[in-house]
Give the backbone structure.
Amino acid sequence: MQARRFGASGRDVSVIGQGTWYIEHAERAVAVAALRGGLDHGLTHIDTAEMYGSGQAETIVGEAIAGRRDEVFLVSKVLPSNASKVGTRRALEASLKRLKTDRLDCYLLHWRGQYKLSETIEAFEDLKEEGKILSWGVSNFDEEDLAEAMAIAGRGKIACNQVLYHLGERAIEHGVIPWCRQHDIAVVAYSPFGHSGFPARNSKGGYVLADIAKAHGASLHQVALAFLIRHPSVFAIPKAARLMHVEENAKAMNVELSKDDIARLEEAFPLGVRPRSLPMI
Ligand code: NAP
């Protein structure tokens, strides 16, 4: 499975994309090459944010997508502290400049902050009308936040909700994934490898991962991604500054886990009880 419909955006988007948080820590040419290599391998969904490296990640993305803008489903995010009606517009203009483009495919509110949701949504709708963003979404929203946003915007407006989701943190399975599926909102799994906490090979879960990976001729990371995208509305955006990693992640789109594999992974990485608030990093 290479692409699926991205909620209200109505677009088909690569199920696995590319994150860019801390990508500026890599040598610039290496990071640019990794992102471009990702595009070559079908990882055309690129996720960035004004926050990442205080704009540096966006400039790296801008360099990577130069001459290839039409291949990319480009997503960036406004910081909550900028998400007033005028602030959102100002933040978008700055992001577009750094990205050297005239539009985003999707613009997200990074998390909820001090401004009223209605203000940010109004700004998103205006920018959409002007063609500066083609769709908009949210991030780190639980079902209550989503219901509030939908009450303001109406059905069919919120393209996605980007949330924390990896083998060790499955909280969104309790309510967010079903809610989003019911309302045609794409779920984008961030930190799909646990940011910096991927299961150790010699841990209980690591043994199960390794066993399944071996049976599929795949890597542990590929199995981890295949597990997340088993839901029909879920996308994943691993960050990889190394071309080798990017190529490996792209091939995860061809790993088809069996029901038995999924049951074993669900047991090895238990869902846990429903937390009182949505986990985020
Ligand atoms: P992540 O994707 O879970 O993990 C990134 C780490 O995994 C990097 O150290 C990377 O190494 C390594 N890696 C990538 N592919 C690998 C592979 N095939 N084998 C082994 N290691 C591999 O962490 P993340 O950056 O936190 O999350 C991904 C993206 O989600 C972010 O970059 C960002 O775009 C987004 N995000 C959004 C939010 C939000 O609030 N909306 C929060 C967090 C993250 P190399 O870089 O050395 O290749």
Summary: Residues 3-268 form a domain with the TIM Barrel fold (CATH 3.20.20.100). Residues 19-21, 47, 110, 139-140, 162, 190-195, 221, 237-242, 245, 248-249, 280-281 surround NAP (CB under 6 Å).
